[in-house]
Automatic annotation (TrEMBL):
The keyword Mitochondrion does not apply. InterPro entries: CheY-like_superfamily, Sig_transdc_resp-reg_C-effctor, Sig_transdc_resp-reg_receiver, Tscrpt_reg_LuxR_C, WalR-like. SUPFAM superfamilies: C-terminal effector domain of the bipartite response regulators (SSF46894), CheY-like (SSF52172). Residues 3-119 form the Response regulatory domain. Keywords: DNA-binding, Phosphoprotein. Residues 133-199 form the HTH luxR-type domain. The keyword DNA-binding applies. This is Response regulator transcription factor. One of its GO terms (molecular function) is DNA binding. It comes from Lentzea tibetensis.
Amino acid sequence: MIRVLLAEDVQMVRGALVALLDLEPDMQVVASVANGDEIVPAVEKNKPDVAVLDIDLPGMDGLSAAAQIHEVAPATRTLILTSLGRPGTLRRALNARVNGFILKDAPINQLADAIRGVAVGRRVIDSQLALTAWDGDECPLTPRELEVLRLAADGADAMEIAGTLYLSVGTIRNYLTTVTMKLEARNRIDAVRIARKAGWL
């Protein structure tokens, strides 16, 4: 029996997925959560074989949770379930060492097969998305530049970002200027839009 944890913030979607996966003869949903901050504690408590994680969740996002799961519960494999089928998103998922990546509009039998594949140690990635990612542009930003832009995207100003990252306000402004130039953006808001569209944020 494959023990599954499901993280999805939309209650109706979560309920439907739990019901459908529980119909599979070789699967049991041992936990379902709506908030990213609940994922790692639920993994530690329930010890699932596979954690199926949405990327966009309240609290910690699914990719950050996947990275933490690999640290605290290496026996639990991770499968990202998302509507964000962008190449940059897949690259971020691979960098977080997820074991699988499947789109939300896939049929339920495809999800069940992906869970089975991940459970036995295979890496399962939506084939069309993998081809798109192969052809997609590499992110030109450094990890620190991405971190600064991510905080700016969440609405933080230069002073707040400086406080969060323990850097000077001048350094943060320099990062934001560099990011805007690298992305050939008109301003910070445009830089966030470009990075989100590419799946880098």
